[in-house]
Each structure stands twice: as C-alpha cells, then as structure tokens.
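Morning - flavin-adenine dinucleotide inputs below, output right after.
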Amino acid sequence: MSKTDSQRQFHVVIVGASIAGLTLAHCLSSTSIEFTVLEARSDPFSDGAGLAILPNGARILDQLGLYQDVLDQGECMVSHSTWLEDGRLLRRVDARQIRSLRRTNYPLIIISRRALLGILYTRLQRRSCVSFDKRVCRIVSSAGEVTVYSADGSSVSGDLVVGADGVYSTVRAQMWHHINNVYNASTGSHRLSEVPLTDSFAGVFGTSQSIPGLERGSIHRTYGHGWSTIIMKGEDSKVFWFIAIARAGTGQSMPHRSSDRACLARVVEPLLEKHVTCNVKFGEIFHRTESCILVPLEESFQTRWSWGRFVGIGDAMTPNLAEGANCAIESAASLANYLAAFARGPTSLSAQERLDLTLKTWEDSRKRRMKSLFIVSQCAVRIEATTSWVLRRLQTFLGLLHVTGIGLLTDITSRTARVDYLPLPRRRDAERVPRNKEESGWNIQLATLPLTATVALMFYVLHAVGM
Ligand SMILES: Cc1cc2nc3c(=O)[nH]c(=O)nc-3n(C[C@H](O)[C@H](O)[C@H](O)COP(=O)(O)OP(=O)(O)OC[C@H]3O[C@@H](n4cnc5c(N)ncnc54)[C@H](O)[C@@H]3O)c2cc1C
C-alpha cells in the first residue's frame, strides 16, 4: 500500500540537507514514497573539515551507488597513531592489522565534509525535491497531515516530518511543543520533557594546507591535559584537524560558535607548542589553516525520537562525538526501511495507528546500538582530554587497546543498519574471517568493558572524594 487513508502518495518532508537528510532522500528515491527536503543553507555545500567514513556508513553508501565517488574523492587510512602531548608515541596501528576492515573490505576513508555533501547532493536523482534557503520555523500537525512552515512564509504539507536538522533541531523542539500541548490539555501537567543538551566540550574543526612530516592516509590522535586532537591527512594532502577542549578549566571564556580567525587563534594559543606527532607541533598545522570553525560539542541522548507525525534522525536525536556521520547514515537507512515497509503493508489498522506502531518499532530497534555508541563516545572524549591523574592512567590503557577499539567501532554486525530493500554489493577480496569466531572474540572484549569502566569509575570517585 503506497497510499495514505486519503489515497494520496505517502509524502515525507525532510528538514535538513546534510548527511542524515540527504542519505534518507537517497534511500527513499528507490521507493514509491514522495519527499521534499527543506534546507536553511543557501547552497548545497557546507562548513566543516574531515570525516572518517567507517564500514557501517560505507556499506550503505555502496548500496546507494555512492561509494566509488567517496573512494575517488577520499583517502584510505593507512595508519592510526596515538601520541601523548610531549611527543611520546603510545601506539601505532597499521590499517592492515584491523581485522574488521580486512573482513568487510571497506577501508576507513578520510574525506572532507564538503566533498561528502557534494556527492550526496549531486548524485541525488530527485534533486528538484531539495529546496535551499528554507529555514523551517513552525510545524503544525493535524489528524490527517503535517504542515511545515519556513521563515520566508512558504509551507509544505505531508504525512510525516523528519528532523534531520542537527543538534539544535527545530523539528525536535516543535515535536515537544506539540507533546506538551497535548499532555497539558489532557492532564494539566508537564510529565514528559526533552533531554537538555550539555556542552562540556568545545570543538574546533579545521582544514590546513599540506605539511611535511605527515603521511597521506595517516590519522594522529593526541591525548592532552583538558584537550585532545585528531589530525588526518586526506585527499590532495589536505590536513583535517579537530580539537576537543574541555570547557571547565580552560580559564578563558570561549564563544559558543565562531569562525573568526583571531578569536580561534586565542582559543588554540595554549596548544600551539603541543605535539601532534613526535616531530610536528600543533602550531605548524594551525599556521597553515585555510578554514576553521568552533562549535559546541553538544551531548544528549533523547529518550523519544518520534511522536505522531514527527520523527528525528542523526544529530537531532543522538549527537555522537566519534561516529556522527556514520550514525547519521545508519539512522537514515534504518528509518527508510521502516517507512518503505509502512508504505507497502496492507493492514486493517488506520494509517495513523500504523504510523505510530512503525515509528515506535523503528525507535526500539535502534536505541540499544545508538546508546552503546553514545556512551563509548562520551567516555572516550572524557578520557582522552582528561585533567584527572586517575583517568590519565586510563589513557595509556586506552591507547594500548586501540586495535581492539577501532576494530569494535568499525565492525559490521547483525545490529548494523543497511538498506533492507536494496541488494548488498559484493566486496571483492574481503577476507574470510569466520563470523562466529570473530563475534565470540568481540564478545569477550566487550564483556571486559563494563569491568574496566567500573574500576575506572571507582578510582575516579575515590580520587574525587579525596581518598
Ligand atoms: C558546522 C559543522 C561542521 C562540522 N564539521 C565536522 C567535521 O569536520 N568532522 C566531523 O567528523 N564532524 C563534523 N561535524 C559533525 C558532523 O557533520 C555531524 O555529526 C553529522 O554530519 C551528523 O549529520 P546530521 O545530518 O544529523 O546533522 P548536521 O550535519 O548538523 O546537519 C543539519 C542540517 O540541517 C540544517 N538545518 C538546521 N536547522 C534547520 C532549519 N530550521 N530548517 C532547515 N534546515 C535546517 C543545517 O543547515 C544542516 O545542513 C560538523 C557539524 C557542523 C554543524
């Protein structure tokens, strides 16, 4: 069934034409579902530096026919090194050592955010369905449809609105506005609420000109005192860099968001003499900067991702510090699976009841995996940029576990989303590692994580109370 109760074609209004929104548009292009994408920016390309495309994201891009472009415009990772701020090497991992990359035959690809957005937009067949300069400001939901209003006064109606509009999601805010109206009207009290965003860390994303001393395809991670960096040398030898800075303890007031070079120079000033490899200091990279932007690294795991004719994907519901782009791609593909099944399925239930059930089932199917990734990324950023001497001991441990850690994060398991209604491309030369053997290996490693975390937490609490 591809029609709603009123016999219209099922129509999805997607807010945000970034990674989550455009991936969803690609997924829906192979179904009978109609869509409109509304984007606040005036052009298809956006700010940002480099992203790492991991096998979970790569497999979906492959299904959508976009993978070769990503390979062509990106750079495959050759090594991952972890450093301490004084230039001591903690661990160097060769890409060939990572079994999950060999097994799936999807290398880790370094690509600029701009290039990825360019591919997602220019390869979209139904590009006429994407409108720029449309900042969504209000959404009205009624029994039969949802109407999405933009700041320029225009509006679009559909059956469902999908918030792919990032951490400050207007769709999420509008959804909660409707939820609270309904609950206030029925019970007279606020029983439910949106999970507030916290921004304990600021992030600076930058792109610099090539610098000698860094190999193409190399990734360098440095653990600092209240900060951590990731430096990647990608396509055209461009250097993509990212710094996470703990807001507490910086001793300086930091703007919320800025791309002003003088302001960012003040923010990164204390890091200029810090090592990002044994022979490259951060200052050498910063002085070659072409573009950079400071953004708050918001964290929140929303408990409710959908309600009525509203749903949110990507950073709008689960901003993820480590896997932002890949999680956004996965959440778009998984939602598309459920919507495609909804549009096909004959049933005795009304369209609204079926939609509620579909969205609830989708949410339940995704939350466990997303919660695990969210917790891992929260812990990782705190350990990597810690100022606590107890957690600093853990850095060494974390650095030594990198082959396992990268293997875990980059692996494809039965919980990893893909587009169910599109064929899985065959990857030539993928190494035959028995699935059950590998999974049991991961399970043992996973089982030790809570133990490690508990011991670390115990030490941390003892330290905090001064024992
Ligand atoms: C400026 C910026 C730079 C980044 N750079 C990097 C980077 O270099 N490396 C990295 O790993 N990660 C980076 N990230 C994070 C990463 O891009 C995200 O984690 C990932 O893209 C999640 O994608 P998303 O589509 O859910 O959200 P986003 O990429 O945040 O996209 C949300 C989209 O919605 C649009 N939008 C927002 N509000 C409205 C509205 N009211 N109406 C219409 N449209 C709206 C925005 O313009 C944007 O295009 C960056 C994020 C931002 C915001």
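Note: The mean pLDDT is 84.

O.
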